[in-house]
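Deliverable D4.2, example record:
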Amino acid sequence: MPEGITLQGQIPAYDDAVFISYARADDQPPPDDDKTQGWVTFFWQQLRWELNNAGVRQAKLWLDRYEIDPTEDFTVKIDEALRKARLLIPILSPNWIQRDYCQLELSKFVEFRSLANDLDDNIVLVKKREVLADYVPRVLKNREGYQFFLKEPSGKLREFYWRGLQDDKAYFDLLKQVADRIAERLTARSALPKHSAEFNGRTIYLAAPADELRDCWLRLANDLRGSGHTVLPWEGRLSDTLPDAEAEIADALARAELCVHLLGDSEGSTPDGSKESLVRLQLRLARERAGRLLRVLWAPKWLPERPGAKRDPFEVVQRFGGLSPGEEVYGEAVTDLSQWLRARLNPSAPASADAVSTLLVAGAVPGDDALVSMLANRLQSDQISVQPVFAGGDLPADDDVGPAAALVPWGKADRVSIDALLDRLAPFGMPTTVLYFPGNNETEKIRFFRQGVYVEPLEAVPPDRRAGRELLDRLLSEGG
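Output generated by the structure prediction step:
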């Protein structure tokens, strides 16, 4: 067992997550081929469809491709996903055997599941390529698994998927067996969700992306469609000429209830006759659309092909004119975004009219903008629209926020600047909490009092989204 692994002393509460453990080298598409998907991505998408087709929509296929912070030995996020996972799918290959991360994922899952005494039934082994028996981890030895290749008498390997599908029937027959095994394990342990009314899917405009985020677009589109929603444009592509592209965008936006824009480093191609990139064109037309159309700007902190360069989502959004009314920023991984969007679109859990629907995180001086950005990131919620307001920025119109609350992080501001900001917030009549952090004039902060404004001292910004949600729940329950 690798060092640093500790038992937690109790069996975790498993959800219906299926963790896919794989080597990134096994998901590299062929060079100079923008049509063929990597092995793992293709497997993930086809398995997702098979599970939906089998009526097991509650299954969450957890893929860490966009979620590992290369500066960390083993992320908290992966550890937590393994702790909660019902099933593990190791994609065995020579590359997988050589990756310490893959070995650690298996060890972690074995440790957590050993407490429940059901390890044998909860590892679904998928074999991408042959691995010599001496190198196969003990827990995987003697498992027949699902072998996506054949070894001919001559010793030559015939892979079912190599630079694309080579044997459609063999591949999909085997994939269905994998899906049936997963469905059997999940439905045996938990009842299928019950619905009191017929599911009513929503229409989402998932903006056509630049090539660097095309895999992410496909993943989101498959998940949303698998949950019963309609995703436009259908293939995530638009016409090459400006008039046709504008017409297609306008038609799709008129039908959509939600817009999701994928903001990478590249802005995509420029349609003939346009001075705007594809990404900017879609965002501008969405912003100009009359009526209230919620827009989610996905600016991931880690890009798929640039794992060493972390980004600030709000700095990315500033390149596109900053936040406009009716927009939210989401910076977590694509798998998190998928689950977050599906929770937001779930009609079985409507928000209460009396509940807070919008949270403003507002700063008084530029020196506190970093606190605003970090808090807004940490406090994002499936149920509440979090809107950062940087120093000097415009507050949203009163009819754009609905039932709302406000947080004012106080780091480097003076009392005069804080009072000025609170005066601007006062007409909204929303519950307001000042969070003061260590530093600057501590006396001003300690002695601060204003009728109707709550005060909460914090030593630091919550370290992660889970802690942020706990803080948000506590503040809203106490101050709301």
